[in-house]
Task: structure prediction
Amino acid sequence: MKKELLLGAEAIALGALDGGISGVYAYPGTPSTEITEYIQKNSHQRKEPVRSAWSANEKTAYEAALGMSYAGKRSLVCMKHVGLNVAADAFINSAITGVNGGLVVAVADDPSMHSSQNEQDSRVYGKFAMLPVFEPASQQELYDATREAFDLSESIRLPVLLRLTTRLAHSRAGVEKREVRQQNRLNAIHAPERFVLMPHNARRQYNHLLGIQNKLEAYSEQSWLNRLIPGTGSTGVLAFGIAFNYVMEVRQAYGMEFPILKIGCYPMPRKAIEDLFSRCETVLVAEEGYPVYEELLRGYFGGKNIRGRLDGALPRAGELNADSVARALGIAPKELMPVPDIVANRPPALCKGCGHRDLYEALNTVMSTCSDRHVFSDIGCYTLGALPPFNSISTCVDMGASITMAKGAADAGLRPAVAVIGDSTFTHSGMTGLLDAVNNQAPITVIIADNDTTAMTGGQSSSATGSKLHAICRGIGVDEEHIRTIIPLKSQLEENIAILREEIAWDGVSVVLAYRECIEAAARKKRNRKGTP
Amino acid sequence: MQINIILAGVGGQGILSIAAVIDHAALRGGLTFRQAEVHGMSQRGGAVQSHLRISDTEIYSDLIAGGTADLILSVEPLEALRYLPWLAPHGRVVTATEPLVNMAAYPAMDEILAELDRTNRPVLINAAELARQIGNTRVSNMVMLGAASPFIGIASEEIESSIERLFQAKGADIVAMNIRAFRKGEEVSQTQA
Result:
């Protein structure tokens, strides 16, 4: 059969489409964005419609997916690892209510923090929620496992977490398609005893979740995602998810024959693991992300010689690779050509001609006259204003935090207290913080850098831009006179400086909407109009 | 047969288009391949790279191990040097020579050339200049693909037909220009091979 050339993220998308989803819900976040983008580009070719617009944030996405599932249809919800923090409330509770139509939660973790604030491990959330987790090791496995995750979800009536990491999400390989499954019919079941989490229901449902755990483990024992690669010798390897690829690479490259137990389905298959441990003197635990299962196994097998990220055999932080695994298996490092000293870093930068450049130029001029030059920022392209030559911002912690941190700092007495946030991030989780600021009459200035798109992740649609942002701020209660609009252009610099000065001097909540379309998005639109891709 | 290639450049220089052409040629040739690429924040003017592996047997790792790249194909000279720890002793560096200076500490060109010279018979290509002669600097990535083609292990005809397929939606003129760029790169490269 003809293979399709797909990124790992796209393999999930195709698996979900062919597995009969009726909708995908997501907020863009590297390395998960391409799952939803693929579905948006390809769902219109399907016989039955698939709903696929972006959500305001991961929590709203998760809850919408849950609603679709309660109505009997299959739904996919996608996010990056830190997005699961935002959706965590809904995620954990959905394990208690369970689902109706299949619900798969695809979460892409970013070890090595290529494009993220931390490298948290979503398998911890899977364990926390006591839900089954799939962690495929190849693009083909991602396609097949996504389909199977929907079947499993429906048969055990629980959401299934599909975890992958950057390297698999953003690597391309040939994937073989299987037959297309039809969508479920609408079937909204009325089961308040499951879906209404009042304490008496929740307690019963929680007991049900606890009771079903052996069944989940039994499923793992026979899953094709967990399998033994037989071998010889006193050392064995327990390889989780993508770590399996690096371990196999080393085995092949050095002609080694150690046995490997590959794990791609959790909870862990206890019998298979006990079997490996009973046969080997030493076991290397290779997992990408946190040493989640190494820690657990050290608890189970205390005296056994377990190697891994906790004892330094593998590095504690960052992605794994064949070189780090080879070292952990006792292979002396090769002598490599060094990077010449003249090679300096080439960090990412704001695009030439980007409106954020003109915004920061104006803001820097205004802030340079302030005794406390402190600007709270948020997550998006404008975060690059932290780097030279701008050095404009002082913080970036999580989505929406700029406004609430500025409020807290204002409460502490910081003047001026200035926040910079993007249009998409504002709707993701900035709006509620603005309401807090208004209710507390906090003396803060919020600059919404509205570039009409979610630019950093590649230009997805934003939930509110332009006049809609203005209306939201007014609705939240910001004084109309202190919602100002500026156009960040060189030619407007003096005027923009004046407006920022006025609003920063105002002793209350003010919002400055800095509106200028992303130049990349504008160029893309122009190309599309011309009809040349 | 197994070929490990590191594609290097700066965000926006079109290395993913080069990768796509090679991927499709490999896929049609029934070869196994894996191609890992960089997305997101680092794309905006930062250093970007793609690990591309082609084989007639199973490939496990998406990443190339240190010291095992047969080829570093770079569309920017400084970026070629960034990935030297991956280069195999027999490996070759094929790089464009026009610098992209978007950083404060960009080294002098003669220093870069001296470092490139330490590698095994580097192939240096004035890609932008050749592309300009062909008609558009935007095809300089196809010039570089052509320059690398003697080292990729896939017949040039296969690669040309991939270029044709990938660019056909943009019209016959664009296809022809990209093929000309590819051939020009290949021709210049052979004089240095």
Q: What stands out?
A: The mean pLDDT of chain A is 96. Chain A has 20 helices and 18 strands. The radius of gyration of chain A is 25 Å.
